[in-house]
Design a protein that fits this description.
By secondary structure, the chain is an alpha+beta fold. It is 21% helix and 30% strand. The chain folds into two domains: 136 residues, no CATH class; 33 residues. Strands 2, 3, 4, 5, 6, 7 and 8 form a seven-stranded mixed sheet that branches. The chain has a two-stranded antiparallel ribbon with strand order 1-9. Strand 7, helix 1 and strand 8 form a beta-alpha-beta unit.
């Protein structure tokens, strides 16, 4: 059972001025607080618009036979963490969206028409106007999530962190570690082992021919 929409909610819009006249237009601009405080409007733990942050909405409401077609853009500042260097970041995001809010009756399409296969599935995918009003929040949430980067970076050329010690390479671009090829390291170990064996053999060898002759 759905709850009645509250006209005082800044994300609830009234369409009565359109008068259900197909072709009638209405343009609206409104700045609202991002819903979800203290959660974010976006992907939790990755990037999103913090709850309470201002969101600028530019909307175009158009009356059509089936209902009201809403087209708009939402602009806000998103906060998150760079996936490369793990530093906090802030990015401007613009999310475009379009949604049809249908009239709850069938006056324009013929009231009382016989039910047809697929009607139930169609109704489930439809969003209906309630007392001539619609709630933009679900549409806004989906649009912002799609507009946000899934792997945000503080800048395109972010060098990230050193894989060996974790230092931020953006702050120390000349940072490096002397790499030792593990294949050469193995050969050096083998050479050292052979050298030790040769010394041991020489120290324990029998007297040579010259030594015997001297005796």
């Amino acid at each position: 059972m759905s709850t009645r929409l509250d006209h005082r909610n800044p994300l609830v819009f009234d369409t009565h001025e359109l008068g259900r006249r197909p072709g009638a237009l209405q343009r609206l601009s409104r700045t609202v607080d991002a819903p979800g405080s203290p959660a974010v409007l976006g992907v939790e733990g990755v990037i999103g618009v913090p709850g309470g942050e201002p969101v600028e909405l530019d909307l175009r409401l158009e009356s059509v036979m089936e209902g009201v077609l809403v087209t708009g853009t939402a602009r806000a500042s998103a906060e998150g963490e760079c996936v490369r260097c793990l530093e906090p970041l802030r990015q401007e995001v613009a999310a475009d969206f379009q949604e049809m809010f249908s009239y709850p009756d069938a006056d324009d399409r013929g009231r009382g028409r016989a039910a047809e296969p697929g009607d139930d599935a169609e109704d489930e995918s439809m969003i209906f106007l309630e007392d001539g009003m619609f709630d933009l929040e679900p549409v806004l949430r989906d649009a912002v999530v799609l507009a946000l980067p899934m792997q945000p970076v503080c800048r395109e050329d972010c060098a990230g962190l050193c894989s060996q010690c974790g230092i931020n390479l953006n702050e120390d671009p000349d940072h490096h570690h002397d790499a030792v090829d593990i294949r050469w390291a193995a050969l050096q170990g083998l050479a050292g082992s052979l050298g030790t064996d040769e010394k041991d053999n020489m120290s324990g060898a029998e007297p040579g021919v010259d030594e015997k002759q001297e005796k």
